[in-house]
Amino acid sequence: MKTLSDDTILAKSIKKGSRKAFSILFDRYYKKLLDYAVTYTHDLHEAEDIVQQTFITLWNRIID
């Protein structure tokens, strides 16, 4: 349950515009999301694009 609590704290910090919290979230989930996306795309480069775009969209929605 510690991760859930940590993620909640990160989410609140990200909503306040914390780049460090966003970086921690990115580092924590990028590889897991990439592995998941590869199972659907069967293409590493396409999966990388999808996951990167997801994080870009998340950040842009937060800072707007």
Helix/strand layout:
Layout (H helix, E strand, L loop, with lengths): L1 H14 L3 H23 L2 H20 L1
- Number of DSSP strand runs: 0
Q: How many alpha or pi helices?
A: 3
- Distance N terminus to C terminus? 31 Å
As a percent range, the share of strand residues is under 5%
How much helix is in the residues?
over 70%
Largest sheet, if any? none
- The coarse silhouette is globular
Spans of 5+ residues with little confidence (pLDDT < 50)? none
In round numbers, the mean pLDDT is: 91
H and E string: HHH
| Global structural class | mainly alpha
- What Rg do the Cα atoms give? 13 Å
Please characterize this protein's 3D structure.
- By secondary structure, the chain is mostly helical.
- 89% of the residues lie in helices and 0% in strands.
- The chain contains three helices and no strands.
- α1 crosses α2.
- It is globular.
- The mean pLDDT is 91.
